Amino acid sequence: MLNNLKLKKMKIISKTLKMLPIFLLVIGLTSCSDDDDNNGNVEQATTVVDVAVAKGLTSLAAALEATNLVSTLQGPGPFTVFAPDNAAFTALLNSTGLDLDNLSAAEEDVVRNILLNHVIIGQTISATNLVNAGSGYTNTAATGPNGVNLSLYFTTSSGVELNGQSTVVDADNTATNGTVHIVNTVIDLPTIATFATSNDALSLLVSALAYADTGSPTVPWIDTVSDATAGPFTVFAPTDGAFADVLAELNLTGFGEGMNELNAATTNAVLLNHVVSGNIQSSGLPNGTVSTLGGNITADNTAFTLTDANSRTSNIVTSLVDIQGMNGVVHVIDKVILPAP
User: Fold this and answer.
1) Which pLDDT belongs to residue 44?
2) N vs C: which end of the chain shows fewer Cβ within 10 Å?
3) What is the pLDDT of residue 158?
4) Integer Cα distance of 159 and 135 in angstroms
């Protein structure tokens, strides 16, 4: 159901070499399946479901009913719900051909996960909370590989935007068990590409993926990181600052096929050293040899560092780990990993 990313989208991403300040919104989250309190019998005077109905979100109400989520969101919560408006749901149903009155078991599971991707459990988050944070990541109640909760990236430079695709249009509708923010687009289940393209601090990584695709890449990079059914993969994602540093280190001016440019073949080789098969959360990072798609690197799970075959050490940014998508997890690093000489 997720649209493949287009090169046009990547080109409009800022090419700044300065790291975007990112603030991690720390929230104590629990999943719907693990929180017995959310399925309790405590009656709520005005639930987030009631607020959605009162705001005329009939399509959301129908989707919640079709996926048996009404009783969940009538529990004590607290919940923060990013509620798509009716036009957003119409666009989703038209693009996917889904019929809420006639869902197969598999379709119901997908729609339920999409809906849960709009729900944060455990805290009421106001628009002011988000604006004060500026930008960052939190987790939704939706799940990806190994049942891990999916991540949600928010920015507030021009309104509250979620995963680079959905904007809050009506904030802070208060319920007794949480708050509802109405959004203008259904938030797709995220992929690795979602997080790479929505965060301007990773814009040069997107450029590297796109440039590697212009040659003869080992894998079609953009298609692979955009494919929700691929992988899962673990990606160590260099910041824009890391790419700027490595270009200076190698006396290169940028991506290209010229004498002093990083060519497509080498870009492909570099990228392979940042990808590991499997969905490895930070808590599962091994101590010792890690086999990337491009060769072995060495991880230190105490210092949170990665050392490449050239004895160059990269720090894993501890506040930017476990960024979870449907096709894998992203950990941000501060130095580009280079292939063996």
Assistant:
1) 55
2) C
3) 85
4) 11
Instruction: Count Cβ atoms within 10 A of the Cβ of residue 338 and give its class: 0-12 exposed, 13-18 middle, 19 or more buried.
Output: buried
Question: Based on the domain organization, do 180 and 311 belong to the same domain?
Answer: no
Of the candidates 287, 337, 332, 282, the one whose C-alpha atom is nearest the C-alpha of residue 313 is: 337
Q: Do residue 218 and residue 295 come from a single domain?
A: yes
What pLDDT score does 41 carry? 38
Read off the amino acid at residue 97.
G
Which residues is 179 bridged to in the sheet?
80, 174
Pairing of strands 328-333, 323-325: antiparallel
75 and 98 co-located in one domain: yes
Tokens found for residue 334? 């501060």
Q: Is 298 exposed, middle or buried (0-12, 13-18, 19+ CB in 10 A)?
A: middle
pLDDT of residue 61: 93
For 1, 20, 63, 202, 270, the CA distances from 84, given in Å and listed in that order, are: 17, 28, 11, 27, 40
Each residue of 83-111: pLDDT tens digit?
A: 999 999 899 988 988 888 899 999 999 99
Taking only Cα atoms into account, the Rg of the chain, rounded to an integer number of angstroms, comes to 21
Total number of residues shown for the chain: 341
Q: Is 231 in the same domain as 180?
A: no
Q: Where are the alpha helices (DSSP H) in the chain?
A: 7-11, 48-54, 58-66, 70-73, 86-96, 105-116, 127-133, 192-198, 203-212, 221-226, 240-249, 264-272
Extract the tokens encoding 78. Answer: 């607290």
Residue 6, domain member (yes or no): no
DSSP-derived 3-state class of residue 313: strand
Containing domain of residue 206, as a range? 201-333
Q: Are the C-beta atoms of 161 and 187 separated by less than 8 Å? A: no
How far apart (Å, rounded) are the C-alpha atoms in residues 233 and 276? 6
CA dihedral sign, ordered 199, 205, 208, 210: negative
Residue with tokens 């005005």: 46
Q: Tens digit of pLDDT for each residue in 282-323?
A: 999 999 999 999 999 999 999 999 999 999 999 999 999 999
